[in-house]
Amino acid sequence: MTQNMARIVATTSLGALLACGAQADFPGGKPTTGATAGTTTGGDTTGSGSGTPTTSAAVTTSGAGGAGVSTTGAGVTTGSGGATGSGGASSGSGGTGVAQDSGAPDVGVDKRAADLIELRDALKNLQGFTYTSPCLFSDNGSDVTTLAGCATGSICWRTSGLGRFAETKTIAIGGPAGHVYDIDLNVLGVIEPRDYPPAPNCTFMPMQPLTTISVAQCTDGFANQGSVTFNVYQFAVPAPAAKFYFNDVSAHPPHRVDPGDNKFTFSVNAGSTITFTMDDLNGGEIRNCTISMLRSKYTYAANSPFGNGTPIMAPTSVAQPYNGNWFALSVIDARVR
Q1: Going by fewer Cβ within 10 Å, which terminus of the chain is more open, N or C?
Q2: Residue 86 sits in the same domain as residue 224
Q3: Residue 199 in 3-state DSSP?
Q4: Same domain, yes or no: 178 and 45
């Protein structure tokens, strides 16, 4: 019994002496830039020796008489006297572990950052899309390409024969298959108003002015063309299928043009193509002689694909006041579903 006790005391004293000698210059364990320290056991790592901390992503070190540091992912656990791990758990020997804030990035923030990159590319053809319908001929076929002699309420034509004129423009939406984009879109411009078919065919989008040009969603905005021959401005989304009209008013208007600065929200599948159609039905459009639209009351959202709180402006390519009808689209904000 006496011999055994003496052997234990001697062994313990020798271990302590060796440990102190190994850490004499760095009481807390010498820092290193090594990728690993220790050996793995049951999915964790267990180090032996000097108790040196490391910059490895998932390393546990244990020291004899030193201060061990365990890092798992971005989290940090510190222990006095080292730490050993087995089967996914770590335990400190001779000390108390302290959990610290991991500092791990917010998953939601990372996803939004990735979404913004995707949206900026997928919606690049929609952002800034501009349509102009210039006045070219008067009702007697004379040139009216300038505002000289322009009279409010007068009519101009796109063709010298003063016939019906219609055209379509396409807007390709990019993005990976299966994604759906919810878009807050601004329509800024000056357009001749039209009364479209009443509900249930057409309904105004939320927060529209109604008495001046407003955005409406219709099953078929052409349905009343037999009685209303003012110009149709149709924005057709193929999927999810929907048709929007940019110049609806609540009552049949006289000859005039209206300034518009309207916002509405719609959805569109990635990889689809939106079709815009302007059809003047009876061949003419009301001239704009005096109305200028330089800046929207809206700004880009604080975290949108195309701006951070900056003003939405009319394109510099559109002279003000514009001699005809025009509008420009701006993506205020968008989200990926």
Answers
A1: N
A2: no
A3: coil
A4: no
Q: DSSP secondary structure string, 143-197?
A: B--S-TT--TT-EEESSTT----EEEEEEE--S-TT-EEEEEEEEEEEE--BPPP
Query: What are 37-47's pLDDT values in tens digits?
Result: 333 334 443 34
Residue 178 domain boundaries? 110-336
Q: Residue 125: in which H helix or E strand, if any?
A: none
Written as one letter, the residue type at 38 is: G
- Range scoring the smallest mean pLDDT among 66-70, 237-241, 297-301: 66-70
How many CB atoms neighbour CB 118 within 10 A?
18
Torsion angles phi and psi, residue 114, rounded to 5? -65, -40
Residue in this structure with the two tokens 């790592």, named with its chain if needed? 45
pLDDT tens string 92-135: 444 444 445 555 556 677 999 999 999 999 999 999 999 999 99
**Is residue 28 assigned to a domain?**
yes
Of 71, 100, 129, at which residue does a domain stop?
100
Say if residue 90's pLDDT is above 90: no
Residues in the chain: 337
pLDDT of residue 108: 74
The last residue of one of the domains, among 81, 100, 119, is 100
119: its two tokens: 């949206």
8 A C-beta contact, residue 309 and residue 157: no
On the question of pLDDT at 81 being above 80, the answer is no
pLDDT at 311 over 80: yes
Q: What is the mean pLDDT of the chain?
A: 79
Listed residue (73, 79, 83) closest to 103, CA to CA:
73
For the chain, the first-to-last Cα distance in angstroms comes to 75
Q: CA angle 50-96-20, nearest 5°?
A: 30
**Looking at the DSSP assignment, which residues form a beta bridge with residue 119?**
none
Are 79 and 121 contained in the same domain?
A: no
Task: For residue 108, give Cα distances in angstroms to 113, 122, 182, 207, 265.
Answer: 9, 20, 17, 30, 23
Instruction: Assess if residue 86 is contained within a domain.
Output: yes
Any domain includes 81: yes
The amino acid at 155: I
